[in-house]
Q: What sequence folds into this?
Protein backbone atom coordinates (compact mmCIF):
# COMPACT_ATOMS: atom_id res chain seq x y z
CA UNK A 1 0.00 0.00 0.00
CA UNK A 2 1.35 3.42 -0.97
CA UNK A 3 1.41 6.04 1.79
CA UNK A 4 0.72 9.74 1.46
CA UNK A 5 3.16 11.38 -0.96
CA UNK A 6 5.61 13.57 1.05
CA UNK A 7 5.63 16.65 -1.16
CA UNK A 8 7.69 18.54 1.43
CA UNK A 9 10.62 16.32 0.43
CA UNK A 10 10.81 17.81 -3.07
CA UNK A 11 13.93 19.93 -3.54
CA UNK A 12 15.72 21.69 -6.36
CA UNK A 13 19.46 21.23 -5.84
CA UNK A 14 22.56 22.70 -7.44
CA UNK A 15 25.23 20.29 -8.64
CA UNK A 16 28.97 20.78 -8.48
CA UNK A 17 29.09 22.27 -11.99
CA UNK A 18 26.36 24.82 -11.21
CA UNK A 19 23.54 23.02 -13.05
CA UNK A 20 20.33 22.05 -11.25
CA UNK A 21 18.17 18.97 -10.87
CA UNK A 22 15.06 18.21 -8.85
CA UNK A 23 15.22 15.47 -6.22
CA UNK A 24 11.84 14.18 -5.05
CA UNK A 25 10.23 11.04 -3.63
CA UNK A 26 9.45 8.46 -6.29
CA UNK A 27 5.82 7.80 -7.27
CA UNK A 28 4.32 4.54 -8.59
CA UNK A 29 3.54 6.44 -11.80
CA UNK A 30 7.30 6.93 -12.31
CA UNK A 31 7.78 3.28 -13.26
CA UNK A 32 8.18 3.90 -17.04
CA UNK A 33 10.65 6.75 -16.42
CA UNK A 34 12.66 4.68 -13.93
CA UNK A 35 12.76 1.74 -16.34
CA UNK A 36 13.96 4.06 -19.12
CA UNK A 37 16.64 5.40 -16.78
CA UNK A 38 17.88 1.92 -15.91
CA UNK A 39 17.91 0.93 -19.57
CA UNK A 40 19.96 4.03 -20.36
CA UNK A 41 22.74 3.13 -17.93
CA UNK A 42 25.93 1.84 -19.47
CA UNK A 43 26.56 -1.88 -19.12
CA UNK A 44 29.25 -1.15 -16.54
CA UNK A 45 26.96 1.11 -14.46
CA UNK A 46 24.19 -1.51 -14.53
CA UNK A 47 26.65 -4.20 -13.44
CA UNK A 48 27.85 -2.04 -10.53
CA UNK A 49 24.26 -1.26 -9.49
CA UNK A 50 22.78 -4.78 -9.80
CA UNK A 51 25.99 -6.86 -9.64
CA UNK A 52 25.05 -8.14 -13.09
CA UNK A 53 24.76 -6.56 -16.52
CA UNK A 54 21.81 -8.85 -17.31
CA UNK A 55 19.40 -7.75 -14.57
CA UNK A 56 15.65 -7.82 -15.18
CA UNK A 57 15.17 -4.06 -15.49
CA UNK A 58 11.38 -4.22 -15.80
CA UNK A 59 11.11 -6.03 -12.49
CA UNK A 60 13.74 -3.75 -10.93
CA UNK A 61 11.80 -0.62 -11.93
CA UNK A 62 8.55 -2.02 -10.52
CA UNK A 63 10.30 -2.85 -7.27
CA UNK A 64 11.87 0.60 -6.93
CA UNK A 65 8.54 2.44 -7.27
CA UNK A 66 6.77 0.11 -4.81
CA UNK A 67 6.94 2.50 -1.85
CA UNK A 68 5.00 3.34 1.29
CA UNK A 69 7.26 6.32 2.18
CA UNK A 70 8.19 4.81 5.53
CA UNK A 71 9.59 1.27 5.35
CA UNK A 72 9.96 1.35 1.56
CA UNK A 73 11.24 4.68 0.33
CA UNK A 74 12.72 5.91 -2.94
CA UNK A 75 14.01 9.10 -4.54
CA UNK A 76 14.49 10.16 -8.14
CA UNK A 77 16.55 13.02 -9.55
CA UNK A 78 14.89 14.54 -12.61
CA UNK A 79 15.73 17.15 -15.21
CA UNK A 80 13.94 18.76 -18.14
CA UNK A 81 10.28 19.57 -18.69
CA UNK A 82 9.62 15.86 -19.24
CA UNK A 83 11.16 15.03 -15.82
CA UNK A 84 13.75 12.70 -17.25
CA UNK A 85 15.21 10.56 -14.46
CA UNK A 86 19.00 10.94 -14.08
CA UNK A 87 19.47 9.35 -10.67
CA UNK A 88 17.71 7.20 -8.09
CA UNK A 89 18.13 6.11 -4.49
CA UNK A 90 16.08 3.77 -2.33
CA UNK A 91 15.97 1.98 0.98
CA UNK A 92 14.05 -0.99 2.36
CA UNK A 93 13.73 -1.51 6.10
CA UNK A 94 15.27 -4.87 7.05
CA UNK A 95 14.35 -4.82 10.72
CA UNK A 96 14.27 -2.43 13.65
CA UNK A 97 16.14 0.76 12.91
CA UNK A 98 18.17 -0.55 9.96
CA UNK A 99 17.52 -0.47 6.22
CA UNK A 100 19.25 -1.60 3.05
CA UNK A 101 20.03 1.15 0.51
CA UNK A 102 21.00 1.34 -3.16
CA UNK A 103 21.90 4.15 -5.57
CA UNK A 104 22.43 4.79 -9.28
CA UNK A 105 23.33 7.90 -11.28
CA UNK A 106 23.16 8.32 -15.06
CA UNK A 107 26.60 8.11 -16.64
CA UNK A 108 26.42 11.68 -17.96
CA UNK A 109 25.62 13.02 -14.47
CA UNK A 110 28.36 11.20 -12.57
CA UNK A 111 31.19 13.14 -10.89
CA UNK A 112 28.90 16.15 -10.36
CA UNK A 113 27.93 15.54 -6.73
CA UNK A 114 24.52 14.03 -7.43
CA UNK A 115 25.26 10.75 -5.64
CA UNK A 116 26.21 12.63 -2.48
CA UNK A 117 23.03 14.71 -2.60
CA UNK A 118 20.87 11.61 -3.11
CA UNK A 119 22.55 9.96 -0.12
CA UNK A 120 21.98 13.04 2.03
CA UNK A 121 18.29 13.30 1.14
CA UNK A 122 17.75 9.56 1.59
CA UNK A 123 19.49 9.57 4.98
CA UNK A 124 17.41 12.55 6.14
CA UNK A 125 14.15 10.81 5.19
CA UNK A 126 15.34 7.55 6.78
CA UNK A 127 16.20 9.26 10.06
CA UNK A 128 12.78 10.91 10.13
CA UNK A 129 11.23 7.47 9.66
CA UNK A 130 13.12 5.98 12.60
CA UNK A 131 16.00 4.39 10.69
CA UNK A 132 19.39 4.93 12.33
CA UNK A 133 21.63 2.98 9.94
CA UNK A 134 21.61 2.45 6.17
CA UNK A 135 23.42 -0.64 4.90
CA UNK A 136 24.80 -1.10 1.40
CA UNK A 137 26.66 -3.95 -0.27
CA UNK A 138 29.01 -2.41 -2.84
CA UNK A 139 31.15 -4.25 -5.36
CA UNK A 140 34.81 -3.75 -4.54
CA UNK A 141 35.29 -2.48 -8.10
CA UNK A 142 32.74 0.31 -7.56
CA UNK A 143 35.36 2.79 -6.41
CA UNK A 144 33.23 5.87 -7.16
CA UNK A 145 30.36 4.78 -4.92
CA UNK A 146 32.72 3.81 -2.11
CA UNK A 147 34.29 7.26 -2.40
CA UNK A 148 30.83 8.87 -2.25
CA UNK A 149 30.26 7.16 1.10
CA UNK A 150 33.74 8.09 2.38
CA UNK A 151 33.38 11.76 1.49
CA UNK A 152 29.69 12.12 2.35
CA UNK A 153 30.17 13.66 5.79
CA UNK A 154 28.08 10.93 7.44
CA UNK A 155 29.65 8.61 10.03
CA UNK A 156 30.35 5.35 8.16
CA UNK A 157 31.85 1.92 8.78
CA UNK A 158 33.43 -0.09 5.96
CA UNK A 159 34.11 -3.81 6.10
CA UNK A 160 35.92 -5.46 3.21
CA UNK A 161 34.88 -8.96 2.17
CA UNK A 162 35.87 -11.02 -0.89
CA UNK A 163 34.76 -9.02 -3.95
CA UNK A 164 32.62 -6.54 -2.01
CA UNK A 165 32.57 -3.86 0.66
CA UNK A 166 29.93 -3.77 3.40
CA UNK A 167 28.98 -0.18 4.15
CA UNK A 168 27.05 1.14 7.15
CA UNK A 169 25.95 4.78 7.16
CA UNK A 170 24.66 6.47 10.33
CA UNK A 171 21.77 8.66 9.19
CA UNK A 172 22.33 11.53 11.65
CA UNK A 173 24.84 14.14 10.48
CA UNK A 174 27.76 15.09 12.69
CA UNK A 175 28.88 18.77 12.95
CA UNK A 176 31.74 17.85 10.61
CA UNK A 177 29.21 16.43 8.17
CA UNK A 178 27.17 19.62 8.24
CA UNK A 179 30.33 21.59 7.45
CA UNK A 180 31.03 19.19 4.60
CA UNK A 181 27.62 19.76 3.00
CA UNK A 182 27.90 23.52 3.50
CA UNK A 183 31.21 23.37 1.64
CA UNK A 184 29.64 21.38 -1.20
CA UNK A 185 26.80 23.89 -1.35
CA UNK A 186 29.30 26.74 -1.55
CA UNK A 187 31.16 25.08 -4.43
CA UNK A 188 27.88 24.61 -6.30
CA UNK A 189 26.79 28.23 -5.73
CA UNK A 190 30.13 29.55 -6.92
CA UNK A 191 30.04 27.35 -10.02
CA UNK A 192 26.54 28.48 -10.96
CA UNK A 193 27.43 32.17 -10.54
CA UNK A 194 30.48 31.92 -12.80
CA UNK A 195 28.13 31.98 -15.79
CA UNK A 196 26.71 35.28 -14.51
CA UNK A 197 29.89 37.15 -13.63
CA UNK A 198 32.36 35.52 -16.05
CA UNK A 199 30.30 34.59 -19.12
CA UNK A 200 32.00 33.93 -22.43
CA UNK A 201 29.01 35.19 -24.43
CA UNK A 202 25.97 37.36 -23.66
CA UNK A 203 22.62 37.74 -25.42
CA UNK A 204 20.29 40.68 -24.73
CA UNK A 205 16.68 39.74 -25.44
CA UNK A 206 14.74 42.93 -26.03
CA UNK A 207 17.71 44.95 -27.28
CA UNK A 208 16.34 47.85 -29.29
CA UNK A 209 17.71 50.02 -32.07
CA UNK A 210 17.85 53.09 -29.85
CA UNK A 211 19.04 53.69 -26.29
CA UNK A 212 15.67 54.93 -25.10
CA UNK A 213 14.61 51.56 -23.68
CA UNK A 214 15.95 49.33 -20.93
CA UNK A 215 17.01 46.65 -23.40
CA UNK A 216 18.67 49.28 -25.56
CA UNK A 217 20.59 50.71 -22.61
CA UNK A 218 21.76 47.28 -21.42
CA UNK A 219 23.02 46.41 -24.90
CA UNK A 220 24.75 49.80 -25.25
CA UNK A 221 26.45 49.41 -21.86
CA UNK A 222 27.80 45.97 -22.73
CA UNK A 223 29.35 47.42 -25.88
CA UNK A 224 30.52 50.66 -24.24
CA UNK A 225 32.46 48.88 -21.49
CA UNK A 226 34.09 46.54 -24.04
CA UNK A 227 32.84 43.25 -22.63
CA UNK A 228 35.44 40.59 -23.28
CA UNK A 229 33.30 38.40 -25.55
CA UNK A 230 30.52 38.43 -28.17
CA UNK A 231 27.29 40.29 -27.36
CA UNK A 232 24.22 39.25 -29.37
CA UNK A 233 21.15 41.54 -29.69
CA UNK A 234 17.88 39.59 -29.90
CA UNK A 235 15.13 41.53 -31.67
CA UNK A 236 12.72 39.84 -34.13
CA UNK A 237 11.81 43.21 -35.64
CA UNK A 238 15.28 44.44 -36.56
CA UNK A 239 18.11 43.33 -38.82
CA UNK A 240 20.64 45.39 -36.87
CA UNK A 241 20.68 46.83 -33.36
CA UNK A 242 23.11 49.69 -32.72
CA UNK A 243 25.16 48.58 -35.76
CA UNK A 244 25.34 44.93 -34.65
CA UNK A 245 23.62 42.09 -36.53
CA UNK A 246 20.43 41.12 -34.69
CA UNK A 247 18.78 37.70 -34.32
CA UNK A 248 15.10 36.87 -34.12
CA UNK A 249 15.52 34.57 -31.12
CA UNK A 250 18.21 33.14 -28.87
CA UNK A 251 17.95 29.85 -30.76
CA UNK A 252 19.22 31.57 -33.94
CA UNK A 253 22.51 32.70 -32.36
CA UNK A 254 25.38 30.83 -34.10
CA UNK A 255 27.16 29.41 -31.09
CA UNK A 256 26.72 28.94 -27.35
CA UNK A 257 25.20 31.59 -25.07
CA UNK A 258 26.25 31.56 -21.42
CA UNK A 259 24.22 34.52 -20.14
CA UNK A 260 20.91 35.90 -21.42
CA UNK A 261 19.63 39.26 -20.20
CA UNK A 262 15.86 39.49 -20.68
CA UNK A 263 14.13 42.87 -20.99
CA UNK A 264 10.74 42.17 -22.56
CA UNK A 265 7.20 42.54 -21.16
CA UNK A 266 6.42 40.09 -18.34
CA UNK A 267 3.92 38.19 -20.48
CA UNK A 268 6.67 37.26 -22.93
CA UNK A 269 9.40 36.25 -20.47
CA UNK A 270 8.31 32.61 -20.10
CA UNK A 271 8.49 32.01 -23.84
CA UNK A 272 11.95 33.56 -24.01
CA UNK A 273 13.09 31.44 -21.06
CA UNK A 274 11.92 28.27 -22.83
CA UNK A 275 13.97 29.21 -25.90
CA UNK A 276 16.97 29.84 -23.66
CA UNK A 277 16.53 26.39 -22.13
CA UNK A 278 16.46 24.78 -25.57
CA UNK A 279 19.57 26.76 -26.54
CA UNK A 280 21.43 25.55 -23.47
CA UNK A 281 21.80 28.95 -21.81
CA UNK A 282 23.20 28.58 -18.30
CA UNK A 283 22.20 31.87 -16.67
CA UNK A 284 19.30 34.33 -16.96
CA UNK A 285 19.09 37.90 -15.72
CA UNK A 286 15.43 38.91 -15.91
CA UNK A 287 15.12 42.68 -15.71
CA UNK A 288 11.42 42.64 -16.62
CA UNK A 289 8.96 43.63 -13.87
CA UNK A 290 5.38 42.44 -13.40
CA UNK A 291 5.89 39.31 -11.33
CA UNK A 292 5.35 38.47 -7.65
CA UNK A 293 5.65 42.14 -6.66
CA UNK A 294 2.36 42.89 -8.48
CA UNK A 295 -0.07 40.38 -6.94
CA UNK A 296 -1.50 36.92 -7.58
CA UNK A 297 -1.25 37.02 -11.38
CA UNK A 298 2.39 38.02 -11.12
CA UNK A 299 3.04 35.29 -8.57
CA UNK A 300 1.76 32.73 -11.07
CA UNK A 301 3.96 34.17 -13.84
CA UNK A 302 6.99 33.94 -11.56
CA UNK A 303 6.14 30.36 -10.57
CA UNK A 304 5.90 29.38 -14.25
CA UNK A 305 9.23 31.10 -14.96
CA UNK A 306 10.96 29.22 -12.14
CA UNK A 307 9.54 25.90 -13.33
CA UNK A 308 11.01 26.56 -16.78
CA UNK A 309 14.41 27.41 -15.29
CA UNK A 310 14.43 24.34 -13.05
CA UNK A 311 13.42 22.02 -15.86
CA UNK A 312 16.23 23.36 -18.05
CA UNK A 313 18.84 23.48 -15.28
CA UNK A 314 19.22 27.27 -15.63
CA UNK A 315 19.88 29.71 -12.77
CA UNK A 316 18.18 33.10 -12.66
CA UNK A 317 18.76 36.52 -11.11
CA UNK A 318 15.56 38.55 -10.78
CA UNK A 319 12.98 39.09 -12.03
CA UNK A 320 12.29 42.80 -11.44
CA UNK A 321 15.96 43.78 -11.16
CA UNK A 322 18.38 46.21 -12.82
CA UNK A 323 21.03 43.66 -13.81
CA UNK A 324 24.57 42.73 -12.85
CA UNK A 325 28.10 43.93 -13.48
CA UNK A 326 31.68 42.76 -13.08
CA UNK A 327 34.18 45.62 -13.06
CA UNK A 328 37.22 43.36 -13.39
CA UNK A 329 39.01 44.69 -16.52
CA UNK A 330 39.52 41.10 -17.68
CA UNK A 331 35.70 40.70 -17.89
CA UNK A 332 34.30 44.26 -18.05
CA UNK A 333 30.66 43.19 -17.89
CA UNK A 334 28.00 45.89 -17.52
CA UNK A 335 24.69 44.07 -17.94
CA UNK A 336 22.71 46.88 -16.28
CA UNK A 337 20.89 49.96 -17.51
CA UNK A 338 22.90 52.21 -15.16
CA UNK A 339 24.25 55.33 -16.91
CA UNK A 340 27.68 54.92 -15.31
CA UNK A 341 30.24 52.16 -14.71
CA UNK A 342 31.97 52.11 -11.31
CA UNK A 343 35.74 52.00 -10.90
CA UNK A 344 37.22 48.56 -10.35
CA UNK A 345 37.86 47.74 -6.70
CA UNK A 346 37.46 45.04 -4.10
CA UNK A 347 33.89 45.59 -2.85
CA UNK A 348 31.04 43.21 -3.74
CA UNK A 349 27.60 44.82 -3.57
CA UNK A 350 24.09 43.35 -3.58
CA UNK A 351 20.97 45.46 -3.83
CA UNK A 352 17.43 44.16 -3.66
CA UNK A 353 16.25 47.47 -5.11
CA UNK A 354 17.13 48.36 -8.68
CA UNK A 355 16.68 52.12 -8.33
CA UNK A 356 18.72 52.14 -5.15
CA UNK A 357 21.38 50.16 -6.94
CA UNK A 358 21.66 52.97 -9.49
CA UNK A 359 22.15 55.52 -6.72
CA UNK A 360 24.68 53.33 -4.93
CA UNK A 361 26.82 52.83 -8.04
CA UNK A 362 26.79 56.60 -8.61
CA UNK A 363 27.70 57.33 -4.98
CA UNK A 364 30.45 54.70 -4.92
CA UNK A 365 31.95 56.31 -8.00
CA UNK A 366 31.90 59.75 -6.34
CA UNK A 367 33.65 58.34 -3.26
CA UNK A 368 36.21 56.47 -5.32
CA UNK A 369 35.06 53.21 -3.75
CA UNK A 370 35.86 50.50 -6.26
CA UNK A 371 33.43 47.67 -7.01
CA UNK A 372 34.48 44.12 -7.83
CA UNK A 373 31.00 42.97 -8.84
CA UNK A 374 27.39 44.04 -8.32
CA UNK A 375 24.04 42.29 -8.48
CA UNK A 376 20.53 43.66 -8.29
CA UNK A 377 18.51 40.61 -7.23
CA UNK A 378 14.97 42.03 -7.38
CA UNK A 379 12.41 39.43 -6.33
CA UNK A 380 15.11 36.81 -5.54
CA UNK A 381 13.10 34.04 -7.17
CA UNK A 382 16.23 31.90 -7.51
CA UNK A 383 19.68 33.40 -6.85
CA UNK A 384 19.60 34.97 -3.39
CA UNK A 385 21.84 36.93 -1.08
CA UNK A 386 23.11 33.67 0.42
CA UNK A 387 24.34 32.51 -3.00
CA UNK A 388 26.11 35.80 -3.68
CA UNK A 389 27.76 35.93 -0.26
CA UNK A 390 29.17 32.46 -0.92
CA UNK A 391 30.36 33.58 -4.35
CA UNK A 392 32.17 36.59 -2.91
CA UNK A 393 33.65 34.41 -0.16
CA UNK A 394 35.62 32.50 -2.81
CA UNK A 395 36.28 35.51 -5.08
CA UNK A 396 39.90 36.58 -4.71
CA UNK A 397 38.97 40.00 -6.08
CA UNK A 398 36.52 40.80 -3.25
CA UNK A 399 37.55 41.81 0.28
CA UNK A 400 34.36 43.51 1.51
CA UNK A 401 30.64 42.75 1.03
CA UNK A 402 27.81 45.32 1.08
CA UNK A 403 24.14 44.34 1.25
CA UNK A 404 20.93 46.31 0.82
CA UNK A 405 18.14 43.96 1.87
CA UNK A 406 14.38 44.29 2.02
CA UNK A 407 13.64 40.71 3.09
CA UNK A 408 15.10 37.33 4.01
CA UNK A 409 14.17 34.17 2.13
CA UNK A 410 16.09 31.81 4.44
CA UNK A 411 17.25 33.58 7.64
CA UNK A 412 18.85 30.47 9.17
CA UNK A 413 20.98 29.85 6.12
CA UNK A 414 21.88 33.55 6.00
CA UNK A 415 23.05 33.37 9.61
CA UNK A 416 25.24 30.31 9.01
CA UNK A 417 26.70 31.67 5.79
CA UNK A 418 27.33 35.21 7.01
CA UNK A 419 28.95 33.99 10.24
CA UNK A 420 31.42 31.86 8.28
CA UNK A 421 32.18 34.42 5.57
CA UNK A 422 32.39 37.36 7.97
CA UNK A 423 35.43 35.84 9.68
CA UNK A 424 37.52 36.66 6.61
CA UNK A 425 35.50 39.27 4.71
CA UNK A 426 33.46 41.91 6.59
CA UNK A 427 29.76 42.14 5.68
CA UNK A 428 27.97 45.48 6.02
CA UNK A 429 24.20 45.60 5.64
CA UNK A 430 21.33 48.05 5.46
CA UNK A 431 17.98 46.39 6.11
CA UNK A 432 14.98 48.47 5.08
CA UNK A 433 11.37 48.01 6.14
CA UNK A 434 12.06 48.83 9.80
CA UNK A 435 8.61 50.33 10.30
CA UNK A 436 5.28 48.70 9.46
CA UNK A 437 4.85 51.21 6.62
CA UNK A 438 8.32 50.41 5.30
CA UNK A 439 7.63 46.68 5.49
CA UNK A 440 4.44 47.13 3.46
CA UNK A 441 6.36 49.13 0.87
CA UNK A 442 9.07 46.45 0.66
CA UNK A 443 6.46 43.78 0.03
CA UNK A 444 4.94 45.67 -2.89
CA UNK A 445 8.33 46.73 -4.22
CA UNK A 446 10.14 43.41 -4.62
CA UNK A 447 7.60 40.85 -3.46
CA UNK A 448 9.50 40.47 -0.17
CA UNK A 449 9.12 37.03 1.38
CA UNK A 450 9.96 37.70 5.01
CA UNK A 451 9.84 41.23 6.35
CA UNK A 452 11.17 40.36 9.80
CA UNK A 453 10.70 42.60 12.82
CA UNK A 454 13.52 45.04 13.49
CA UNK A 455 14.39 43.35 16.79
CA UNK A 456 14.67 40.01 14.99
CA UNK A 457 16.87 41.50 12.28
CA UNK A 458 19.17 43.08 14.88
CA UNK A 459 19.53 39.75 16.65
CA UNK A 460 20.17 37.95 13.36
CA UNK A 461 22.89 40.40 12.34
CA UNK A 462 24.58 40.31 15.74
CA UNK A 463 24.54 36.51 15.77
CA UNK A 464 25.99 36.45 12.25
CA UNK A 465 28.68 39.09 12.79
CA UNK A 466 27.14 41.42 10.20
CA UNK A 467 27.77 45.15 10.67
CA UNK A 468 24.37 46.83 10.49
CA UNK A 469 24.14 50.48 9.49
CA UNK A 470 21.05 52.66 9.71
CA UNK A 471 21.47 54.45 6.39
CA UNK A 472 23.28 54.07 3.08
CA UNK A 473 25.47 57.02 4.06
CA UNK A 474 26.59 55.13 7.16
CA UNK A 475 27.17 52.00 5.10
CA UNK A 476 29.53 53.87 2.79
CA UNK A 477 31.33 55.48 5.74
CA UNK A 478 31.99 52.06 7.24
CA UNK A 479 32.85 50.60 3.84
CA UNK A 480 35.39 53.36 3.15
CA UNK A 481 36.93 52.75 6.55
CA UNK A 482 37.23 49.00 6.07
CA UNK A 483 38.32 49.25 2.44
CA UNK A 484 41.11 51.75 3.03
CA UNK A 485 42.75 50.74 6.29
CA UNK A 486 43.69 47.53 8.11
CA UNK A 487 40.97 45.82 10.11
CA UNK A 488 41.14 46.26 13.92
CA UNK A 489 42.79 43.35 15.70
CA UNK A 490 40.45 43.53 18.68
CA UNK A 491 37.81 45.59 20.48
CA UNK A 492 40.03 47.78 22.70
CA UNK A 493 39.56 51.42 21.67
CA UNK A 494 41.28 54.72 22.40
CA UNK A 495 39.55 58.07 21.83
CA UNK A 496 41.40 61.31 20.99
CA UNK A 497 39.40 64.56 21.04
CA UNK A 498 39.72 68.30 21.60
CA UNK A 499 36.40 68.56 23.47
CA UNK A 500 35.33 66.69 26.59
CA UNK A 501 31.62 66.39 25.79
CA UNK A 502 31.96 64.63 22.41
CA UNK A 503 34.64 62.41 23.94
CA UNK A 504 32.20 61.25 26.62
CA UNK A 505 29.48 60.62 24.04
CA UNK A 506 31.95 58.64 21.95
CA UNK A 507 32.97 56.55 24.97
CA UNK A 508 29.31 55.81 25.74
CA UNK A 509 28.68 54.80 22.13
CA UNK A 510 31.71 52.49 22.15
CA UNK A 511 30.56 50.85 25.36
CA UNK A 512 27.03 50.38 24.00
CA UNK A 513 28.52 48.77 20.89
CA UNK A 514 30.49 46.21 22.88
CA UNK A 515 33.87 47.95 22.58
CA UNK A 516 36.28 48.52 25.47
CA UNK A 517 37.54 52.05 26.18
CA UNK A 518 40.75 50.87 27.86
CA UNK A 519 43.10 52.62 30.28
CA UNK A 520 46.24 53.87 28.56
CA UNK A 521 49.65 52.67 29.69
CA UNK A 522 51.91 54.83 31.89
CA UNK A 523 54.44 55.19 29.07
CA UNK A 524 51.76 56.47 26.69
CA UNK A 525 50.51 59.06 29.20
CA UNK A 526 54.06 60.21 29.88
CA UNK A 527 54.77 60.71 26.17
CA UNK A 528 51.51 62.65 25.71
CA UNK A 529 52.40 64.96 28.59
CA UNK A 530 55.57 66.03 26.76
CA UNK A 531 53.64 68.07 24.17
CA UNK A 532 50.06 68.50 25.45
CA UNK A 533 49.16 71.35 27.85
CA UNK A 534 48.85 70.70 31.56
CA UNK A 535 45.06 71.15 31.32
CA UNK A 536 44.73 68.21 28.93
CA UNK A 537 43.24 64.93 30.17
CA UNK A 538 45.62 62.06 29.48
CA UNK A 539 43.22 59.29 30.41
CA UNK A 540 41.05 57.62 27.80
CA UNK A 541 39.36 59.58 26.18
CA UNK A 542 42.38 61.83 25.63
CA UNK A 543 41.03 65.43 25.77
CA UNK A 544 43.66 67.73 24.27
CA UNK A 545 41.37 70.77 24.94
CA UNK A 546 40.23 73.30 22.34
CA UNK A 547 43.64 74.84 21.71
CA UNK A 548 44.96 71.62 20.13
CA UNK A 549 46.37 72.02 16.63
CA UNK A 550 46.37 69.65 13.69
CA UNK A 551 49.96 68.74 14.51
CA UNK A 552 48.89 67.90 18.08
CA UNK A 553 46.17 65.61 16.73
CA UNK A 554 48.60 63.80 14.46
CA UNK A 555 51.21 63.27 17.16
CA UNK A 556 48.66 62.24 19.81
CA UNK A 557 47.08 59.67 17.50
CA UNK A 558 50.50 58.24 16.63
CA UNK A 559 51.42 57.93 20.31
CA UNK A 560 48.11 56.38 21.36
CA UNK A 561 48.10 53.95 18.43
CA UNK A 562 51.44 52.55 19.62
CA UNK A 563 50.03 51.68 23.05
CA UNK A 564 50.05 47.83 23.25
CA UNK A 565 46.66 47.86 25.01
CA UNK A 566 44.96 49.65 22.08
CA UNK A 567 43.57 47.83 19.04
CA UNK A 568 41.99 50.84 17.32
A:
Amino acid sequence: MTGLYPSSREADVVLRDGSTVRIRPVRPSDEPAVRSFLEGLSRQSRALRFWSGAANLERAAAWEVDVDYRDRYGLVATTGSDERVVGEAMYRRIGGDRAEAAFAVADAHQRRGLGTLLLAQLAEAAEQNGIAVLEADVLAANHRMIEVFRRSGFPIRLRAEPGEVKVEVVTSLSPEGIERFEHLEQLASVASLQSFFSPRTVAVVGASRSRGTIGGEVFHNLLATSFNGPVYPINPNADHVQSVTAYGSVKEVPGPVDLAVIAVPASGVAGVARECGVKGVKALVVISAGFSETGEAGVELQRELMEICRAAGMRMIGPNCMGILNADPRISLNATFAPMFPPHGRVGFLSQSGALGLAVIDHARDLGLGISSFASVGNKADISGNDLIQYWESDEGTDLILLYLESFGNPRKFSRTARRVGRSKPIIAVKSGRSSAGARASSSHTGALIAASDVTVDALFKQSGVVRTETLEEMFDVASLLANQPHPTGKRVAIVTNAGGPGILCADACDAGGLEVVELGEGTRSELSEFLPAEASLTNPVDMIASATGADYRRAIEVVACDPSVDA
Notes: The longest helix spans residues 175-197. The two ends are 68 Å apart (CA to CA). The chain has three domains: 7-173, 193-484, 492-561.
